[in-house]
Amino acid sequence: MARDPKDCALLAAKTLEDKKGQDVVILDISRISILADYFVIATGRSLIHVKALADEVEKKLIEEGFTLRGKEGYDEARWVLLDFYDIIVHIFHGPDREYYMLERLWADAPRVEPAVQGG
């Protein structure tokens, strides 16, 4: 059963917020990239927190019927990438998010307001 990519992005964002991920952002890249429809970006407070966030997002999205295509960076936990085909979740350790600045790189992508409160 095909699921709406926006639903997947919103669920990922909510899961990150629920687990105290910081500065959660959803970018709609569907009109400017063939990579995916959405990026969900968040920051973990520590390397252990980054892994915990990645574990929870992976678990929740798979439970809801989304398929994980790939996972990168989990062992180092500085930048974990979870590829769910139409959405890509980026979970950074704080200094690495500042270094890579994905929001600046994808500045032309509109932000999607999640149905959760900011963290």
Task: Please describe the structure with a list of short key phrases separated by commas or semicolons.
Beta Polymerase, domain 2, globular, six-stranded mixed sheet, 4 helices, 119 residues, alpha+beta
Task: Report on this structure.
The protein has one domain (5-112): 2-Layer Sandwich (Beta Polymerase, domain 2), CATH 3.30.460. A six-stranded mixed sheet has the order 3-4-5-2-1-6. Strand 4 (79-83) and strand 5 form a beta hairpin. Helix 1 (5-18) packs across helix 2 (47-63). The mean pLDDT is 93. It has helices spanning 5-18, 47-63, 94-100, 102-105, and strands at residues 22-28, 38-44, 70-72, 79-83, 87-93, 111-112. It has 119 residues and is an alpha+beta fold.
Task: Give me the secondary-structure topology.
Layout: H1 5-18, E1 22-28, E2 38-44, H2 47-63, E3 70-72, E4 79-83, E5 87-93, H3 94-100, H4 102-105, E6 111-112
Parallel strand pairs: 2-5
Antiparallel strand pairs: 1-2, 1-6, 3-4, 4-5
Helix pairs in contact: 1-2
